[in-house]
Each structure stands twice: as structure tokens, then as C-alpha cells.
Design a protein that fits this description.
127 residues, mainly alpha, 0% strand, 78% helix
């Protein structure tokens, strides 16, 4: 369980990095007025996948008995971030093409706010 905890703890940096990259990529696309085309879907999918992995590892730790002060708010915020990303991704896929960067940008920005709040809720460092 200790190795899983270290993997979960260290993965947060990769999640944050992927989120910042996605945020910058989508902001650039939005400012340039581009359509949401390759490689943008892959950037979003990579961030969603990393967040999903992080949530799964966190749930395994929680149900395995590893807890910390503030864990319930941490869980709620992190699961909320994953839900926000999945909803933004689903809505974006269902919109007629060509779609813009507005919705993915908003989803990633809100998810990053929730992730940072979730990290801070258990007293961990963001950087």
C-alpha cells in the first residue's frame, strides 16, 4: 500500500503538468480562433486519462484504509474534477463540427481549480 501511496502522491505532478499544458494549448487555440481538431482531442484525452488514473489510485487507497485529515473533501473535489472533465469531453464530442476551444478550455480550467483545492485540502503542496 505504501508504493501505491507514493505513486498516487507523485502522479499529482504529472496531472498538474498535463492540466497546465492542456490549459495553455486550449487557450492558444481559443485566442487564435482555431477549430478543435487534431491534436487537441488527444491533449484532452491525455489529461482526462491521467485524472482518471489518479482518482482510481486514490479510491483504492481510501477503501484500503489509507486516510488523512480532510480526506472527504479531497475525495469530493477530485471526483468532481473528473466529472467536470468527462462532462466537458462528452458535450464537446456531441456538438456539431467544427467545434471551438471554449468548452474544453472551461472544463480544464474548472478541473484544475478543483484539483488544486483538493490537493490543498489535505495539506499537500501543489509545487
Amino acid at each position: 500500500m505504501t508504493a501505491l501511496f507514493h505513486a498516487h502522491s507523485g502522479l499529482r505532478y504529472l496531472v498538474l503538468l498535463a492540466g497546465v499544458v492542456a490549459l495553455g494549448f486550449f487557450l492558444y487555440g481559443k485566442l487564435r480562433g482555431q477549430t478543435f481538431a487534431r491534436p487537441a482531442p488527444a491533449v484532452l484525452a491525455a489529461f482526462v486519462g491521467l485524472v482518471d488514473l489518479q482518482v482510481v489510485l486514490g479510491l483504492i487507497l481510501y477503501f484500503g484504509g489509507r486516510t488523512a485529515p480532510g480526506i472527504l473533501s479531497h475525495l469530493a473535489l477530485m471526483v468532481g474534477a473528473a466529472v467536470v472533465l468527462h462532462v466537458a469531453s462528452m458535450i464537446r464530442r456531441r456538438r456539431p463540427q467544427p467545434a471551438g476551444f471554449g468548452l474544453p478550455l472551461a472544463g480544464v480550467a474548472l478541473a484544475l481549480v478543483l484539483i488544486v483545492a483538493g490537493i490543498l485540502s489535505i495539506g499537500r503542496s501543489v509545487v
